[in-house]
Structures are given as C-alpha cells and as structure tokens.
Amino acid sequence: xxxxxxxxxxxxxxxxxxxxxxxxxxxxxxxxxxxxxxxxxxxxxxxxxxxxxxxxxxxxxxxxxxxxxxxxxxxxxxxxxxxxxxxxxxxxxxxxxxxxxxxxxxxxxxxxxxxxxxxxxxxxxxxxxxxxxxxxxxxxxxxxxxxxxxxxxxxxxxxxxxxxxxxxxxxxxxxxxxxxxxxxxxxxxxxxxxxxxxxxxxxxxxxxxxxxxxxxxxxxxxxxxxxxxxxxxxxxxxxxxxxxxxxxxxxxxxxxxxxxxxxxxxxxxxxxxxxxxxxxxxxxxxxxxxxxxxxxxxxxxxxxxxxxxxxxxxxxxxxxxxxxxxxxxxxxxxxxxxxxxxxxxxxxxxxxxxxxxxxxxxxxxxxxxxxxxxxxxxxxxxxxxxxxxxxxxxxxxxxxxxxxxxxxxxxxxxxx
Amino acid sequence: xxxxxxxxxxxxxxxxxxxxxxxxxxxxxxxxxxxxxxxxxxxxxxxxxxxxxxxxxxxxxxxxxxxxxxxxxxxxxxxxxxxxxxxxxxxxxxxxxxxxxxxxxxxxxxxxxxxxxxxxxxxxxxxxxxxxxxxxxxxxxxxxxxxxxxxxxxxxxxxxxxxxxxxxxxxxxxxxxxxxxxxxxxxxxxxxxxxxxxxxxxxxxxxxxxxxxxxxxxxxxxxxxxxxxxxxxxxxxxxxxxxxxxxxxxxxxxxxxxxxxxxxxxxxxxxxxxxxxxxxxxxxxxxxxxxxxxxxxxxxxxxxxxxxxxxxxxxxxxxxxxxxxxxxxxxxxxxxxxxxxxxxxxxxxxxxxxxxxxxxxxxxxxxxxxxxxxxxxxxxxxxxxxxxxxxxxxxxxxxxxxxxxxxxxxxxxxxx
Lengths: 416, 416
Fold this sequence. Notes:
The first copy, chain A, is α/β, with parallel strands linked by helices. Chain A has helices spanning 13-16, 24-34, 49-62, 80-87, 96-108, 115-119, 156-174, 192-198, 200-204, 232-250, 262-272, 287-293, 311-318, 322-328, 333-346, 394-414, and strands spanning 5-11, 38-45, 65-69, 92-94, 122-124, 128-130, 139-144, 147-152, 179-188, 210-216, 220-229, 254-256, 277-281, 302-308, 351-357, 372-378, 383-389. Strand 14 of chain A pairs antiparallel with strand 14 (302-308) of chain B. Chains A, B: Belongs to the CinA family.
C-alpha cells in the first residue's frame, strides 16, 4: 500500500478567459478523495499545442495518474486526441463497434452520422476506449511506464458518467490506497481568529495522523479534520475523540459535523420527524424550492411552493390580506408572517416558510434598501420571523436569504 | 504594446480534496480578460511548502504576473505569507498603520485584537501592502526582475474587493495591452457536429485574427469568436461581419449574440412584446422560476409561479381536474395542458408554461421511465406540448427540461 497521486489537466480557453467555471476538476477531486487517491495538483491550460504537450510532460513527472478533461469534441478547435496520439507516438485506428453503436444511437433519434461524428470512432491505437453513454466522444485510457493517462470529454455529464461507471471502479480494483478520512465541523457566529485562539492548545496536542484546516466563509467557519493511515477503525476512533474535545471547547458554535448541504440536512430532519414543508417565496423566486427539490426523495417531505411575485397574486392566490400589504408593504414582517401561515394551510403542510425582500439591483427605497429581507417560519403553534440587511449583488442576496431561511428551519427542527 | 501573460496559483487542500469549488480563479480570469491580460495557465496546489515554492518558481518562469489566492488566514495552516517572505528572501515588518486600522475596525464591532489578528499587520519588508476592506489579511504586492507577484486572501469577497479597488486599476495604469474581443453566439436545438458541418466552409475562410471555439452544453452550443490585435475598431467590424454570415448560415438556431442566457433572452422578448409569463412546475421544482427571477428587472414580465409537487395541490390549489390526473396520471400531456392553462388564468399572465415528469432517480415505471417529461405552453389562443425522454441524472433532467421549455417559449415569442 502506497500513496497514489493524481494530477488533473483541464484543457480549454473558455476556462482561462473566465467564461466557463471549471466544475469538472472539483467533481473529480471529490471522487478521487473518496477512494483515497490524492490529487497533488490541478492545472488548466489553453487550447494550444505547446501548453497541452508541456502539461502532459510535467504531469507525467509528478503523478501516477493523469486525468485530462476537455478538447475532445468533433470540431477543429479540439486538440486533445491528436496530441495524445503524438505524445504516445501512436497511429489511429477505427473502432467498428464504436461506430456501430454511434450509428444505432443516431438512428434512434432519427439522425444520420456525418463525417465529423464518424471521426469520433477513430482513436489512437495505443489506448483502450472508455465508453461515453451520454455523448459521442469516447474516453481514452493510456498506460506507459506505470503511469496512467485518461482523457475525458469536458461536458460535465459525460465526464461524470465515465468516471462513475468505468474509471473509478477500475481504480478501486487496481489500487490499494491508504485510508483518508475527513470530518467537517460546521461552526457559526465565531470569527476564525477567535476560534483559533480558543483551539490553540488543542491544536498543538493533535496527533500527527490528523491534519487541521480552517475554512472560513460568510459568518461561518468550517473546521476540517483529515486523518490518513492504514487502519480505518483506529482513524475513525481518533477523529471521534477529537470531535468530542471540540464540542467541549467550542460546542456552542458547532451546528453540525457531517457533509451534505443544508437543504439535505433539513430533508433528513423532516423525514425523521415525519413532517412536511411548503414555501412561499417572493424575493428568492423559486430558488428555495429548487434547492429542496434538487435532492432525490424530496417528494416525501416537500409539499410544494408558490412564488407570487406580484402583490395581487400574494393576495388573490396565496391569500395574504390586502390591508396588510397596503399598510406595511410586501417587504414587511406582517406580510411574511401571513405568507408563511397561508402557504402552510393552502398546501396542507406542517411547516410553512416565506421570503420577501429587495434582491436588487433595482427596487430599493430609503426605508427598504436593496438587501432588506424578511423571512418567516410558521409551524402551526407559532410563527417566527427574521429581518436581514444583506449587502451582496442580486445572486448573493438570493442565495444568502435562502441559506438563512434553511438555517432557521434547521434550528427549529433541531430544537424539537 | 506586447502581450502580458498571467499565471494563477490557488493554494488550498480544500480545493484538491473536492470540498471547495474554486470560483476565485474564474473571477480573476474574467477580470483580466476584460483588460487584455492573458491567463496562460492556472494551477492549484496543496497547503504544503514544497508544492507552493515549486509553483512560485514555475510561474515566475512562464508569466509576467503571478496572482496567488489562499493561505493568508491568521491560523497555522496558512503558509503563503511565510513562504513568500522566504521566496523573496525578505525579513518581516510591522505596519503600524495597518495595526491601527485593524484596532479601529475591531473596536467598532466591540472586540479587541488578539495576537493572531495583530500578526496580520506584519508583512514581508519587500512587499507593498494591498488594502483589504472586507477582511483582516492585507494583500501583498512584490516586484522582482520585471515580474509581479501578488498574494490575495482566498475568501471570495475579500479577493474581489482587492482586485477591483486596487489591483485592476494599477494594471490598467502600468500595462498597455493588445485588444482582445470576444463575441458569444448562443445556439439552441442543434447538435455540435451538425453545426460544425454547416459551418465548415465558413470556418475555413475565417481571418487569422479570429479564433473560433465550440462550447457545447445541454441542448445548447455556444460559438465563441475571439479577435485579437491592435485596432479595436477594425476587430469589431471584423467580428460583426462574421456574425452576419453566421446568421445567414444558421440563424434559425441562434437565440442571442451577447453574454446573456436563454432566460434573459426570453425576458427581453417578453418586455418588447409587453407580455407576462407564469410557471406551473412539477418536476423542475422551482428551477425555471429561479432562472427567470435571477435576472434583474424580471418583475416586469414574470407574474409568479407555483410548484404543486403533490397531486392534491395540482387539483386543489392550481385547479387541474381530478379526473384528468386519475385518468392520465400527473406525467401526461393532458395534465401539463391543464397546468399551463390554469396557471395562466390563475396568475393572470399572457403565457402559462408547465412541466411534469420523472426527474429520477426514483419514481420511474415501465410506461413512464425516469427522464420522461411533458411540457406545455398556453398563450390563450392555443396550447402547445412537447414530450421528451431524457437520460441524465436528476440534476441533468431538471436542467435540460428547463432549457427545452425556455426554448419553446423563445420560439413561440420569436414567431410573433
């Protein structure tokens, strides 16, 4: 058993121009981490021969596995395949089975292959093809002097399918990697430097098998404990022991120790308590519903939602009283209270939540500036509200409102 | 005037473990691109001495500007500052003005500086500090042999403020960079290979000053034209000319040529035609509403939406007939027709749209497998429907359903 190191190469001018956010390498890092393969570095290079060849050479020096994404399309600007053929000094070969499969898939959609598509069945002789179920460009698996080079498409869905169905299972089969365990401890309401001060003695006493990192966010700091070694049981016990100590030292700031997002946590809590939720969203415009319904199985606890963007809909469809909106305005404590209570009744849910605010950039007034947000939570016995003054752009304000409300739901459910 | 090349170094195990998505380098790439500085490469390395020092050395060889993010916090796991001091062979110096400023800012929040915070006012002698308005770790600007090294915090808000207020203005002042113009042409409903075939002759005849890239997505392909040179006017004219040609060749697939997205395009069309829209979402669970309301000014044309996840809500709140759902099921042409027509009436909009399908991973049956989706669009004179069989995961199915429906709205509005 030895450490296996991977290096990631993303190819594409669109990433370096700032037009495309590279989520591929994020996904790959997470998946490799789960099976104990360490990513030592990731590099993004442009669609140019020299940059790509240079990246291949450097990566081969540093890592055991080189994972390449991008530049595999059927069009001229895609250079990865010819350059890999050159790098491995390999001729090209037409794979009849891949061609047949492509023909069949196109026929099903009532289309015929053109020359560009046909070219995708041609691969360097020295590689093994990796099946692409969602697209037309196969992946390529090369081996040379105990190094593995794998090329995958840049389209996230295609790359993910390839990783999950072909590449990760193969890695698990051939590598016997050390155990790598992460534990994330979520804290809220304490600045990083204060937390570090409180934890100084504890940190100095940490076992060498454990590495600590502070990951600061907006009003939140995550502590990450990483243990690596051979004995999973021993490492887990070690981590549990340190988490216990952390609870004793800074327990009042800790709101969770697991992975997964806040919407998932709330789903778990709702399921456990056999409760359902419904949302009335104004300023968040469907984002809260989207986060909840992004989780598989959410229909078990999510009843539904409404986003009555205009006041007449808040009144006529949701049932907020006209006088309330006239007297206090749509962005007010009174309005979010009625929104939460009405959506709870109308959608026949245990919990009703609501948002109303000025997301910006327009719509602000002297009294209610951009970033002013009210949220409410009604559970049938009482209705809680919160007022926020956020200072981000439209996207930021929508996101932090949603997270704040999800956190209110979490706190409420956790105190039951 | 010569090309100026930048290399980006992100420091942090959290990125390589797949725990944090690196949005910082995406932001920096986009901002540098706007002022004509080319990012030749970006690299992410771990929180270890060797990786960081090695990245400094390599970047210095390749680029004129080296921008570093991360590893600047007050805690022990943050290595960037001591390593930069070592790299530039520099002693440390306490900046009294920074210390005073920190004290003041802490006092305003009713807190006192601790030793860790005080340490943040100590910087390598050889750097100029860069002000951090949103956090406590100053940035550092080093110069050596005509190379610029700048270190910034990893917290996105702090890094962005530093870039916008200090670093980009300084770059504009000292560099006279070539013009770099991008034009994005958004197409929808045509596969990449078909598009490439149709554009082959045009592509072969492109001027050398223009570079073409295909950026495929779900149901969408973006074409990016990049022109670089000295004469902005000439380059703009050249690009305009090619865009005209593209419209003649594949105009029916083009929905826009700007930086905006499909939801924005629909917003523009609705505004121009003085029309409004309302959404009844089942399987997309609020995502369609979220995409529409992510755009500033959407309240001008977006009336609101409802996501009646459960059938009783489709019936009791939205007003779909009970018999329809009982006879045909929730995922059926009949149901999406009634959903679209009812949300149009109930929300008093010109156009009502609806989605109902099996997003997965659960919920599929023999007749209605995961990925089966119906969408509808009602405009008061007729109601159109579309049936799809998608094959992605839950997120992919939700996203492509939304894109497909937005495209139906675009086509309908464009034919008016």
